[in-house]
Amino acid sequence: MDMFCFQCQETARGTGCTKRGVCGKDAYVANMQDLLIYVCKGISVYSTKARELGIENKEVNKFIVDSLFMTITNANFDQADFVEKIKEGFDVREEIKEQYLSAGGKLNQELPDCATWEAEEISEFEKKANSSEVGVLATENEDERSLRELLTYGIKGITAYTEHAFNLGYENGKIYEFIERGLVATTDGSLSIDELVDLVMECGKFGVEAMSLLDKANTETFGHPEVSKVNIGVQNNPGILISGHDLKDMEELLEQTRDTGVDVYTHGEMLPANYYPAFKKYSHFVGNYGNSWWKQDEEFEKFNGPILMTTNCIIPPRDSYKERVFTTGTAGYPGMVHIPDRKKDQSKDFSEIIKMAKECPPPVEIKKGETVILTAGCAKYRYNKLDLGDINGIPRVLDAGQCNDSYSLAVIALKLKEILGLDDINQLPISYNIAWYEQKAVIVLLALLYLGVKNIHLGPTLPAFLSPNVTNVLVEKFNIAFLISNICSESFYQLKSKL
Ligand code: SF4
C-alpha cells in the first residue's frame, strides 16, 4: 500500500485508494496531505491552549483553514505546494507555542507527537509521511477511525466556506475555535465513542454557522440572488472560463476584463454567480459554459480560451489544453500557472490570463438556450438542461446556488415550518436527497442533521469512511437511507450483514 485515502465518493472499489487516487492524486501528494493535516493538529494543540489564556492568533487560523482546504478532493495536486506548506507549518507552530509560553502557559501534560515532532529535510518529511503514525490508518479501531475522519472531513468542509467568507472580509472566531478544538480531539485517545459522536454533531452546528457566515458575506457584498435565466450559448469574442466557488475572484476578474473585448463565462459551481445582482451589470459576463467537473476535459478542450480554477474541482488535464488552465487560492496543479494571492488592499492580477484570452479563438458552442435556475451544488447538472416544464408557471427545477447555499434551502424549510405552524421540520412534505462527492457535502449532511432533518437519502454510494457501527448510529438516530446502487458487492455484503 503506497497511500490510503477514502475521503470522497470516487474512492477505489468503494473502500479506499491505495496506489494512486482515482481523482488523479499521486501517493506522494496523498501522504504529504496527511502530513500537513498532522502538522495542523500539532499547531491546534497550542492554539487551543493559548485561546484559554485569551490569545487569538490570526495567522494560525488562516494557516489551518488554507491547509485543510488544500487537502479537499480535487483542490491541489502539486507536491511542492504541500512541502512548502508543511515547512511554513513548523514556523506557525513555533510562534503560537512561544506566545502561549510567554503568556505563562505551562506544558505539563504529555503532548501528542504531532505537537512535538520536528524535521528540516524533505527526506524526513517523506519518511514521516510514509510512516504508520500519520494518516487515516494510524487509528486502529475502525469506529474511532470512522468518527475521527467524519469529524475531519466535516471540518474540511467548514474550512472551505470559511475561506470564501474570509476573502470577502467576514470572519467568526467561534468557527476557528471549533476547527482547532475538533482537530485536537482527533488526537485524543481518551475520548469515548459517544464523545466523538457528540463532536461530529457539534461539527454540524458549526457547519451551519460557516454557511450562514458565507451567505451573509455573499449577499451583503453582491446582493441577494435573483431568479434568473442563464444563457448557455456562446458569443463571438474570445472568452475566459472561471470555475470553482470564489466570488471575490469572480468580481476581480469581471472588473479587470471590462472593455477588453474578452467575455467571461462561468463553469461548474461558479454558475450561481449569474444570479447575483452585482455581477449582472457586466455586459461581458455572458453566461455559463458546459457542465460540472466531470465533463471538464472535453469542455475545456472546446472552450479554446484560458480557464481559471478558483478552488477544488480540478481533474487531471489533457496536454492539449493544460497550458490554458490557471489556478489560484488553494487550488494547484503541477505545470499550471498559479495566480498569487492578493496583497493587502490590492486585487489579484489576472492580466496574464486576459493577455492569453485575447490571442485565443472564441469558444465552440456546446449547447444553445437558457437554463432556469431549488437545487444547490453541482449535482444539478444531471437535470438542469432537461425540459422538465413548470407547475403554474414555476419551473420544476430551481437552483439555489453552490453547495454552501444548501443553508438557504434549510432556511426555506425552517421558514415553511414556522409559517405552517408545524412542530417539526420533518412534517414538511420535503424529501432530501444528497448526492455527495467530497468533503463539503459531508458538512452539508452534518449541518442538516444538526438542524433536525431526518429521512435524508444519501448516495450514490455509501461513504467508505463510515464503519458499520457508525452507519448504524446514523440510521437509528436520523433514519438516513443510503442509495447503495453503485457500492461494490463486498462492501454491500459487509454492510448488509451488519444492518
Ligand atoms: Fe481516492 Fe477520493 Fe482520496 Fe482521490 S480524494 S485519493 S479519489 S478517496
Question: Could you characterize what this model shows?
Answer:
This protein has 499 residues and is an alpha/beta fold. Helices cover 45% and strands 9% of the residues. It contains 17 helices and 15 strands. The chain has helices at residues 27-52, 58-70, 79-102, 113-116, 122-129, 142-167, 173-185, 193-222, 247-257, 277-280, 296-303, 319-322, 351-358, 406-419, 439-450, 468-478, 489-498; strands spanning 229-231, 239-243, 263-266, 285-288, 307-309, 325-328, 337-339, 370-372, 375-376, 390-391, 394-395, 399-401, 433-435, 457-459, 481-482. A six-stranded parallel β-sheet has the order 4-3-2-5-6-7. A three-stranded parallel β-sheet has the order 13-14-15, with no helix packed on it. A two-stranded antiparallel ribbon has the order 1-8. Helix 16 (468-478) links the parallel strand 14 (457-459) and strand 15 (481-482). Helix 6 packs across helix 15 (439-450). The longest helix is centred in the middle third of the chain and has 30 residues, at 193-222. Residues 484-499 have low confidence and may be disordered. Bound molecules: iron/sulfur cluster.
The structural class is alpha/beta
Arithmetic mean of pLDDT: 89
Q: Describe the sheet with the most strands.
A: 6 strands, parallel
Ligands and ions found? iron/sulfur cluster
N-end to C-end Cα span = 29 Å
What overall geometry do the principal axes of the alpha carbons give?
globular
The number of helical elements comes to 17
Rg for CA atoms? 22 Å
Strand order of the largest sheet: 4-3-2-5-6-7
Number of strands: 15
Any low-confidence stretches, pLDDT <50, length ≥5? 484-499
Helix content range of the residues, please?
40-55%
State which percent range the strand residues make up: 5-15%
